[in-house]
Amino acid sequence: MLTLIHVIRTSQLLRASVLLHPHVHFTTTAHRTMGKNNKKKSNIVPAETYLRLPPLADASLADQPIIDTHTHLVSTFSTYRSKYRDGTLYTIHDFVREMYRDRNVRAIVDVWCEAPVLRTWRELADSALTAEDREQKWGGIDYWFVMGVHPHDAKSYNDAVEASILEAIAHPRCVGWGEMGLDYHYDNSPRAIQQEVFIRQLNHAVRLGKPLTIHTREAEADTERILMEHVPADHKIHIHCFTDSPEFAQRLLQHFCNLYIGITGVITYSTNLNTSNIVSQMAMSDGGPRILLETDAPFMVPSNLYNSIPEIKGSRLPLCHTAMIPWVAEYTAGKAGHPWNGADIMKRANENAKAVYGVQ
To answer: Coiled-coil stretches, from where to where (predicted)?
Structure first.
């Protein structure tokens, strides 16, 4: 449940964010404002090779395909280029093909949630239209996306923005509307406007039958009220990067039969117990955990990953990416408890991704 990744706000980075053409260089730095884990980190950036990640110790995890249901791919690549000025990957396609090579990544759901809408969404989406393109440009990975406006940008939502979203929603690679919702932690847009824009987007998504990607942070009462007033109980919903109270999650799960809780690397952080608690509760339910695995990249590297990279002890990787999902699954399994293991969690999450987004 990241604050919106505003890395691509400047015109310089917007030009770079086409990112399909080689040898693009830029100097804009991503704005890390998340605050999920505020421990002081070393300023030393580990060598790029560590982003390729070590082999998984658990072979059963490696056997499970990765489906990342929420990633900000342009921002992830932008962060990579800003942190590794001499990096060896020059386009988004390079990044996906090479960083995810031999990592068993099957599909990603890319999230576009800025206002005004970044027109580069179409260039990426069109580059994944055919199986041949996906094989050649994406290394065989299925690229999907969702489109909406984040609550931080609600103040910039207007008819023109809405028309752009509706255009994107009609694209064959678009699988949902979002991320949208309420964020009362930062209040980057007035709360009344956040609610108005949230309802406006929900009404369109429900009318079109599109799955919902929801951002909610410290806004439990209003998020619950608005969802229950405007969304049918059987609509497909992804509450992304959940960190609010388990009681709130349970109320939503009980009311909405097709609602799923998004789990990111933030579950591994000592500053966040809510996500672990709701996972434990869901694991004991008759149907098992209604979860989706996601990265919300480029932020929130799972902390248990560092156990696999002792060579960089004391340093921190500057970005998260889709290939880190197995470490999220492994930690989630530990919180789910017996009989769940990491491979089981990935398998269940992948089944849920198909149920929500039709991604498999």
So the answer is: none
